[in-house]
Amino acid sequence: MAKDYHVIEALGKTEIVIENGEVTSVGDPLVDYCPIFDKIDDAKHLTPEFIKWNIEKRIREFGMCTPQRVVRMNDFLSFGISEILKTNVELGLIDCVVGVCDGVGTLLMTEPEIIQGVGGRVSALVKTSPIEEVIEQVGVENVVNLQTADLTPIKGLELAIDKGFKNIAITILPGEIIKEIGEYPLPEDVNVYIFVAHTTNASENEVEIAFEYADVITACSSSKVRDYAEKEKTYYSGSKVPIFAITEKGKEFLDNRLEKIGKPLTINDYPMNKDKHPNPLI
């Protein structure tokens, strides 16, 4: 394995490997069409060729998975997980975000522009290796493991608690780890809010866990997330790739962002019109 080695899942949950600033492997996408990339890049189909081009564009434009990584950015989408977190940090409702960054691993973020820059244009991070220049930008004191850049959300939560943060948001992928975080023995004065992203192809069990413990869940290309939300009549926003508010606090977070950008607040209108959703839903 190369020393500089990064694995992400993006654009239809395609596995992509980046080594030394070069895309060295692109898998087969599970999804053919995504309205977000149709809007951004006029992509009518998610092909391996388009995916390679898109990832290379990210490397050129903001140095993803390289020492040139730009970690501070303004809003990318009007309404996504990083934008929601950024707004609620600015409002003082969240004082720390536990997330992951290419070249860094698990880290703590308190600056709105870093929250946006780290998460706004990077999909699911599966594996990464440390890049000193990127770690220095986010602050060595905010990184869970400087030597290995591990993806360890529980250790991120523990570090946030040790540093005295009281309202902590965690961005996480579907899995049993959500239950572990949801049942973590917190100090009485600490609140943890769980944001679940990259739900494409999540299993029924993973979706059930997410809806039991999370505050906010993105639909991505998941049929099971949409079906569960439809059954529960969950509040949401978004006509193409909805974001669901599972708890009252989650609804508050979403509405704060929607209010900031002048959009209608969350609704629970069902059945959803899925004509403009990703295809296929899996």
Task: List SSEs in N-to-C order.
Answer: EEEHHHEEHEHHEHEHEHEEH
Number of helices: 10
Give the neighbour order of strands across the main sheet: 5-4-7-8-9-11-10
Query: How many runs of DSSP E, i.e. beta strands?
Result: 11
β-sheet strand percentage: 15-25%
By oligomeric state, this entry counts as single chain
Give the integer mean of the pLDDT values: 96
Question: Structural class, please?
Answer: alpha/beta
Residues in helix, %: 25-40%
Uncertain regions spanning at least 5 consecutive residues: none
Shape: globular
Describe the structure.
This protein has 282 residues and is of the alpha/beta class. The protein has a domain at 71-260. 34% of the residues lie in helices and 18% in strands. The chain contains 10 helices and 11 strands. The protein has helices at 35-41, 48-62, 81-90, 112-119, 132-138, 153-162, 177-182, 204-213, 223-232, 248-260; strands spanning 6-10, 14-19, 22-26, 96-101, 105-109, 124-127, 167-172, 191-196, 216-218, 235-237, 243-245. Strands 5-4-7-8-9-11-10 form a 7-stranded mixed β-sheet, sandwiched between helices. The chain has a 4-stranded antiparallel β-sheet with strand order 3-2-1-6, covered by helices on one side. The longest helix is centred in the first third of the chain and has 15 residues, at 48-62. It is globular, with a radius of gyration of 18 Å. The two termini are 32 Å apart.
